[in-house]
């Protein structure tokens, strides 16, 4: 998608009913993705751990 300021974004979700092990892997992946800074990779700008 595209934010109002024209920033390209990709949204990846983690379902609430997943086993804890998979939730931990999701957060570990986010930590790794946050380190990437490349023009061909959408920059990670945040992670939400709750639905609201």
From TrEMBL:
Residue ranges occupied by any Serine-threonine/tyrosine-protein kinase catalytic domain in the UniProt entry: 4-51
Gene Ontology molecular function: ATP binding; protein kinase activity
Record's keyword annotation contains Nucleotide-binding: yes
Keywords per UniProt: ATP-binding, Nucleotide-binding
Coiled-coil spans in chain: none
Classification via InterPro entries: Kinase-like_dom_sf, Non-receptor_tyrosine_kinases, Ser-Thr/Tyr_kinase_cat_dom
Tagged with keyword Flavoprotein: no
Gene3D superfamilies recorded: Phosphorylase Kinase, domain 1
Official protein name in the record: Serine-threonine/tyrosine-protein kinase catalytic domain-containing protein
């Amino acid at each position: 998608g595209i934010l109002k300021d024209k920033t390209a974004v990709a949204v990846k979700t983690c379902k609430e009913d997943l086993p804890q092990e998979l939730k931990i892997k999701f957060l570990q992946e986010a930590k790794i993705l946050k380190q990437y800074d490349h023009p061909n990779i959408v920059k990670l700008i945040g992670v939400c751990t709750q639905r609201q």
